Amino acid sequence: MSKPHGTLQDTFVIHTFKLKVWHSYMGRAQSDIQKQVTIAFPYKWT
């Protein structure tokens, strides 16, 4: 699993990939939540 050389770059690549996945997931989840909130509470949040 761990290599003597190139581990820092691997960690950086994995971290960047996780960040991208996390941001895209959170963006989708946030928009979904906002849609549900807008549908559920159209008057409270406007």
Explain how this protein is built:
The protein is mainly α. It has 1 helix and no strands. It is rod-shaped, with a radius of gyration of 19 Å.
Task: Pick out its properties.
single chain, 46 residues, mainly alpha, 74% helix, 0% strand
Give the topology, please.
Layout: H1 7-40
The topology string of helices and strands comes to H
Q: Quote the average pLDDT.
A: 77
Structural class: mainly alpha
Give a count of the beta strands, DSSP E runs of length 2 or more.
0
Count the helices. How many? Answer: 1
Short characterization:
With 46 residues, the chain is mostly helical. 74% of the residues lie in helices and 0% in strands.
